[in-house]
Specification:
This protein is an all-alpha fold. It is built from 12 helices and no strands. The chain has a single domain, classed as Orthogonal Bundle (ABC transporter involved in vitamin B12 uptake, BtuC), CATH 1.10.3470. 74% of the residues lie in helices and 0% in strands. Helix 2 runs antiparallel to helix 9 and helix 10 (223-233) crosses helix 11. The model has no long low-confidence stretch (mean pLDDT 92).
């Protein structure tokens, strides 16, 4: 994956004079931090054989809740906690529906995707929340977002590679029945990964709101596509049980650089969706081929 990432950088750099400029590289880092954080949470879910389609909408909802609390006169730390709590609440709803109600993850997270976006529009009356303190924008300024992203991946790596919980995540995705027979508390693991994905979406939502210095109810649209693509391109199997958090980071940068290249080449938004959909389809097909090989 890292070889493919290096080749992508080389090709894009040769095709345009602006890719390797400091301003563009900083922009790639800042913009990609949000997707990478989402993808880190998504990795846990997909490793168990699940999926979370709601993360993009939860980004938007968490962002407007954070902005709304801040605009109401609360301090920045309180607003940040409100945004994170919103993401956690969405993750808890997903986790409970999947584990307690036994509803398929695809259906559950599709429903919460729609509900979260609807609540974001209702909360803001479909308007952007502005007039936030200037200090709020510094949360995603400079290298802050990138540092947060790195911290998220380091913690995720420790959780997956150095803890019993991480081993249980792989076990549930590899063979759920065998994991249950081995004494793994399967439902707790499944619940936990959706909660983690929700927190990651809440964190990304807060950072996006900080970058915009506003609460925008449409923020995070199609982010779920980029996050899933980053995880799959990074080598994590959609069928669960196999993957790497560092592969996800490489996959996130692959998708981020692809997005940047499409913008540099002035590709329309609609055509960008076609390209990214094709990338996801190819990555999924390769994953399926690896599973059957």
């Amino acid at each position: 994956m890292f070889v493919a990432l290096a080749l992508e950088c080389l090709i894009v750099g040769l095709a345009t004079d602006t890719f390797f400029t400091s301003a563009n590289l900083v922009n790639v880092l800042r913009q990609n931090a949000f997707i990478a954080i989402l993808a880190a949470g998504m990795t846990f879910v997909i490793l168990t054989g699940g999926i979370d389609l709601s993360v993009g909408s939860v980004v938007g909802l968490s962002g407007v809740i954070c902005a709304g609390v801040l605009a109401g006169g609360a301090s920045v730390p309180v607003a940040l906690l409100a945004g994170l709590a919103t993401g956690l609440a969405a993750g808890v709803v997903n986790g409970l529906a999947v584990t307690a109600l036994r509803v398929p993850a695809f259906v559950v997270t599709l429903a919460t995707m729609l509900m979260a976006r609807g609540v974001a529009f209702k909360y803001t009356d479909a308007r952007t929340i502005t007039g936030l303190p200037e200090g709020f924008a510094t949360l995603s300024g400079g290298a802050v977002a990138s540092v947060v992203m790195i911290a998220v991946f380091v913690v995720s790596w420790i959780g997956l590679a150095r803890t019993a919980f991480g081993r249980h995540v792989f076990a549930v995705g590899g063979n759920l029945q065998a994991a249950w027979l081995a004494g793994v508390r399967v439902t707790r693991v499944q619940f936990a990964v959706y909660a983690l994905s929700g927190v990651a979406a809440g964190l990304a939502g807060v950072l996006v709101a900080s970058r915009l210095n506003a609460g925008y109810p449409r923020a995070g649209e199609y982010y779920e596509l980029d996050a899933i693509a980053a995880v799959v391109v990074g080598g994590t199997s959609l069928f669960g049980g196999r993957g790497s958090i560092w592969g996800t980071l490489a996959g996130a940068f692959f998708i981020g650089i692809l997005n940047n290249a499409l913008n540099l080449f002035h590709v329309s938004t609609y055509d960008q969706l076609i390209v990214k959909g094709a990338v996801l389809l190819v990555a999924t097909s390769l994953d399926r081929w690896r599973e059957s090989a």
